[in-house]
Write the structure tokens for this entry.
Amino acid sequence: MAIDGELAELVFEQMHGVIIVDTSARILYINKQWADLIGVDRNESVGKHVKEVLPSTKMDIIVETGKPMNSDLFEFKGHTYVCKRVPLFKDGKLIGAFSCEIFENMEIADEFIKKIKKLSDELDYYKNEVRKLRRANYSIDNIKGESKTIKHLKKQIYNAAASNSTVIVQGETGTGKELVAHSIHDLSTRNINNFIKLNCAAIPSELIESELFGYEEGSFTGAKKGGKQGIFELAHMGSLFLDEICDLPLAAQAKLLRVLQEKEVNRIGGHRSVPVDVRIITATNQDMEKMVEEKKFREDLYYRLHVIQILVPPLRDRKEDIGPLCRSIIDKLNYNLNMRVKSISDRAVYMLQKHDWPGNIRELQNVIERAMNKVNYDDTLEELHFDEFKEKYLERGITKYGKKSGKGRRFLENIVTQTERETIIRTLKLNAGNKTKTAAHLNISRPLLYQKIKRLGIKT
Ligand SMILES: Nc1ncnc2c1ncn2[C@@H]1O[C@H](COP(=O)(O)OP(=O)(O)OP(=O)(O)O)[C@@H](O)[C@H]1O
Ligand SMILES: [Mg+2]
């Protein structure tokens, strides 16, 4: 869309410090605001060399060089302006230059610069945070427990850290595989370099390859200018932790295998190979062997990844660790939640040992946190603080994950009672506490409603 001269002039008049010159630096246009400020007659200025009107201007340099000055300081009558000067081209041919003020004075410019500086400080802060995230956040000291199996696990971690081979960490959900991966990097000589983690299950499959290998500029629509480093390049000399490795799509599996063999990466859309020295640690809670059988995971890659295999034991196989784990979880949560729970009683630990913990330590953490919210300041966790847990698992009679014992009937009764109680409370509220209306609403007699309210301990 073209705009007419009148409209363009209207716009120019709203701006500050507008001058347009031709290729010989003669004034074609000067806006009223600027002419008034410098004290010249607009009509008389047109046709004059710009230096004649404004001796300190650099507009003549712009038409000579054809290069812009995007934010230059301009001194006039003891006042400093920040201005922009740009050459004007038509069909590739220089036809003149244009200048306008960006900031009316240095105070405004200063304010703007302060704003930018604040944003850039914030950006630095977040960059630093990302850098911190890239380091291993846990060390072997975070792995609690004194059982034989935990001691054996720690020995395996030390051995893996001393080697450079690929490690696979396997185990059920919540057993601490991530802690193991961090600890291996932290104990290795690579610990001064990056620890990069990629959760293969959390990232959309179409992005995995560009995340792993990076891409060159213009390799696909939306590719960032200048291209992007992949995490292999970022983890160079450090460790790359590929979590949930079984979720890596087959196409990416083939490419990963190639990198492991050749020790170099090719960015997407790139023609050169970048050598990388990366230690790979992977983890999964899935049955990898079955996936290989079902051809969902490449067998050749499976062998490449299984050079060092670490199996993290489930909590039910080391129930003697429950006590020390509870105490360490209480310490951690006291700190995180600003609480002061003293400890946990032996009886409560004994009770927790009766459960099989399908969610392992993550589940134990949740149960402890819930109980901690029930005790008073400075108290010890007792059996009674775990009523929800007892109700859900022990009284329901779940001894193995998913299996119910003979106490199932009581469990059903509990649900029925609870639902009945909740329904009555809700209906009472709906009828503003009016029992006649509530009884009618529930289609029961008033005396029966009274009976139920009493039996279920409902406060009216
Ligand atoms: N031995 C341990 N000592 C103390 N805390 C532990 C231990 N093992 C695990 N945890 C804690 O339990 C939680 C779960 O651990 P983690 O995330 O490492 O499990 P995971 O094996 O990777 O599970 P998933 O397969 O679900 O990803 C974390 O908060 C972790 O800090
Ligand atoms: Mg994990």
